[in-house]
Amino acid sequence: MEPQARRAGRPPQDASRRLERAHRILDIAGDLILRWGYDKTTIDDIARRAGVAKGTIYLHWRTREELFAALLRRERVEMLSQVRLRVAEGPGTLRDLLGLLASELLRRPLMRASLLGDSKVLGKLTRLKRSSGAAADLPTGFETYLGALLRLGALRADLTPAEHVVALASVLYGFLLVPQMMPEGYALPDERLAELLADAGSRAVAAGGPVPAGNARAISRATLEFADLAVETAQRKLRASLGSEEPGKPEKSGTSGASGKSVTGPEKSATSLEENAT
Amino acid sequence: MEPQARRAGRPPQDASRRLERAHRILDIAGDLILRWGYDKTTIDDIARRAGVAKGTIYLHWRTREELFAALLRRERVEMLSQVRLRVAEGPGTLRDLLGLLASELLRRPLMRASLLGDSKVLGKLTRLKRSSGAAADLPTGFETYLGALLRLGALRADLTPAEHVVALASVLYGFLLVPQMMPEGYALPDERLAELLADAGSRAVAAGGPVPAGNARAISRATLEFADLAVETAQRKLRASLGSEEPGKPEKSGTSGASGKSVTGPEKSATSLEENAT
DNA sequence: AAATGACCAAATAATTGTATTTGGTCAAAC
DNA sequence: GTTTGACCAAATACAATTATTTGGTCATTT
């Protein structure tokens, strides 16, 4: 009883079809949240446009919030993946990484809204996202990466690690936020903005002189490793958000060993939209 | 029987006493707006704490808005004056200027709120302030100043004027905004922040190599001139806000010739809180 | 004149009640 | 087993009232 193309009835049942449907739903959700904002984007709406019944959506996610968490996570994975892909083709410097990050960020309204805490788009989610430290939702391993760069002589030694982070976060934030509220005459194309950002960010924290000979390779490697780790972490979280059969299962703390106790976060609801340090 | 047997003397009648009282009122207003925000700060409150009757306040300003405009303008003058004063003691470079600006900005919550459009403090004034281009309320003559620096070889030649402005505004904005929302571990003392900001800003737009020999003096002079102009402009506006006898008189467009028609702004109410380009 | 504070229209907040929408469930249909 | 959509409690929006506060004025006092 394999090939039963019975009547039109139960198309998606295997995992692959399930996933496909999940993505279709997220696509719609993404469109709607950008057009109307989180508050005005209803499950009914999404279901209708996605061509499924409301109940079906709850076959994937337990709550509305979880759905949007998945959406944000997917976007994050896509962005980081793209950065990872493109950074492999360049010199793999910090400046390179910043430029790619900016470039990918600028073309993803949802990511921008999420990073900046745009309440116009995130609605009542704004609080949740920002509560967890706003600008501090650095990708996993970022500080480790900076540590490596410092050791390789690629970072200014007259700044503490915290200062490196603050400087980079400030530049990133500023360049993402300011241009939008500038008068007409100052509008710049996104690609140019990304360059300026990368420029400003790297100049702010990068070591002055030329990098110690022979370290270029190691720097590039560190960058790649960081990008890889960031993508993997994001991917793991995403999978938990839409992979499993039962919507509730995942998110169980300490699945694949390795964790221990995250010194950082205050437990909180395991299913919240927290995307920060892990 | 009247309540307080306050022999309502008539102390202030000469200009000097008037001004003194105006400042006392503004002091109170400043305290209150920082403590409760613009929306919840009432004229009654201010009057009571300042030890005057409500009517007296209207002897100085025609409306509540005008009072706060005066407050903001006064703060601005104080800040710019301080910058002017201190910049004369240093090398007078762009970096120097940025550092001082940051330093003075960081110790003035009202200025920060005003610049960043903090709705928590500015309440319904937020809109008005931001409407006029937010980060674009550059002091008078800023672009001219940048032009001079560029001509003197102190600015990167591979950026357009607009790009210089965007970069500086972004850095300033970012460094003023981000540190406040960073997790505990990343807190930095204001003075250090000012340094980092100055560093990042100048590195972002300043020319790479050493400045052409002999230009240092001219650069310093340009910086001084710019600071002077900024202070003067701010002062002129302030005087109009609390100097004259009759609250209404000033603000009349085109007082001291020179104006004509400002190509920029859409007229609007002459008494609004606009502090931008003039 | 200079300053006051009782006074008032208008804005703002608090209250109450009703209508509509929406997240989430689940028995029935496939 | 999978999907659906009618169903419901809870949330949200809307409307109508009433209560309170507040910006601004001005006759009176000093």
From TrEMBL, chains A, B:
GO terms for molecular function: DNA-binding transcription factor activity; transcription cis-regulatory region binding. Residues 19-79 form the HTH tetR-type domain. Gene3D superfamilies: Tetracycline Repressor, domain 2. Residues 238-278 are annotated as: Disordered. Residues 42-61 bind DNA. Keywords: DNA-binding, Transcription, Transcription regulation. Residues 253-262, 269-278 have a biased composition (Polar residues). It holds the Pfam family TetR_N. SUPFAM superfamilies: Homeodomain-like. It comes from the Bacteria. The keyword Chloroplast does not apply. This is Transcriptional regulator, TetR family. It comes from Streptosporangium canum. The lineage of its organism: Bacteria, Bacillati, Actinomycetota, Actinomycetes, Streptosporangiales.
